[in-house]
Specification:
single chain; 200 residues; mainly alpha; de novo design (two linked rop proteins); 4 helices; 0% strand; rod-shaped; transmembrane; membrane
Length: 200
Amino acid sequence: MSLLDVIKVVSGIIVSLAGAGGIVFFLVKLSANTLADNYKQKVKHSFEKELESYKSQIDILRATVLKYNDRQFELYLDLWRNLQELKFACIDLWNIADKMKLVTFRRALIKCDRQIETSSILIDVDHYSELRRIIQSFQDYNFGKERLIESRSLTGVSGRITAPMIQEMINHNRLAMERCLELIESIKDEIQLTINGKKG
């Protein structure tokens, strides 16, 4: 075997190995690409399913929030009407302190108080606290007006109730009424900010 034959055999082996290596490299690369593509498709499919699940949850949440916001808006509107009726009954009672106006005022107060309590789950926590303060102030006003009406009927009869005492009750009631009206205006501003989406 001559040197030329050895070189031919060695170069044949090298070419065969290179060809086989090229084929193996091509097959490995093809397998890797196929596996990578399959993995990508599997991951993509998994992400798409998960994304659809999240979209579905968001749609349900959006519908729930919209329903809640609609209900809350209706509640605040109704509550505002009742607060206005209470305010007008308060002013009427201030203008004429008699038993009929007191009964009308008390009914409006009870109606408003019950609505606040029965709807408290949909009322903003800060608004609820403020509404409770309003109701308490109106209850104090109611008590003061009750005392005044009762005292006026006793003036001069027993001699214990004097004109200065009645004037003091009137002044106390005026302050209570002004506080009630201020609280209503204050919560009005808060509710408007909430409804307009500028608070919270």
